[in-house]
Amino acid sequence: MELFPAMPLAEWRDTKQTLHRFLQIVGKIRLAASPRRNHWWHVPFHLTGTGLTTRPMGRIDGNPIFTIDLDLVGHRLVASTVDGRGASFPMRGHSVSSFYRELLGTLESIGVHARIHIARPYDLADSGRPFVEDTEHAAYDTAAATRYWQVLSQVNLVLEEFAARFSGKTSPVHHFWHTLDIAVTRFLDRPVDQPREAGPLIREAYSREAISFGFWFGDDTVPEPAFYSYAAPEPDGITDRPLPKGAEWATGGSGHLALLRYDRVREEADRAGAVLAFYEAAYRAGAEPAGWPVDALACPHGVTDPYRREGGPWT
Questions:
Q1: What is the mean pLDDT of residues 184-198?
Q2: CA angle, corner 129, sides to 127 and 130, nearest 5?
Q3: Per the confidence metrics, is the pTM higher than 0.85?
Q4: Fewer CB atoms < 10 Å away: N or C end of the chain?
Q5: Which distant-in-sequence residues (6+ apart) come within 8 Å of 182 by Cβ?
Q6: How far apart are CA 45 and CA 174, in angstroms?
Q7: By the 8 A CB rule, do 5 and 151 touch?
């Protein structure tokens, strides 16, 4: 299929709002049932051949080892345990309230007693309303949900290609359920003294110097899909650094985002190449003024072996 097909936010906004809350419910179960990792790496989802997965979790919370998969081609949620028990239900036709109840009941049926410590949305307009009371969000267009996964899969591989160019500490390419973006983050092992008042999310996420790269489907602030990058902490003069044609610096939170609109990329003959060039420029804009050893951390073609002939066979 076409790389980066049309994905206007207006055409699937209602489905996106429902699906986002479905994912937050599953994500909060994952948060409670997974061993903690630095920078919250235990929280996001990963992609599969048909949708999203929590990866195996459990055991630390007294549950059997279990996995929740969201099949965005067949549009079913599938719960499985390591001993072979499993159950599933269709995602279409549910409100957030009924999805929440159905998921907890499905997990109980296979011996998993799920916990959600704060059973309401995180950082959404209705964050004060418990999931179980949300009968408003019930739209689920199957074609839109499948397209969402297809675009995620395409962006995932572009981010994997970009991640391969860096030999330092880097996150996996992963899909965050709280903001519905897919991202990869590069780190420099230089501690950042985050103040207590920054809160536990920020203190853990940005305890080291970081430059993040990703994609999201649009929101009320930027009502269209876009590729992005930001540096934390942000070095002085970052917005004076050049970005490729069509990209821009935008105000975001307490700093700036490098933005490349999805529809702008769709105008390019080499769409993946345009995104990679954008990420590379944004990386240098954040890394060079901050004193990162850019050349020493480079990993051309994803290879650190100095004796491997470029393009030669692996075996």
A1: 95
A2: 110
A3: yes
A4: C
A5: 152, 155, 156, 159, 173, 174, 175, 176, 214, 215, 216
A6: 6
A7: yes
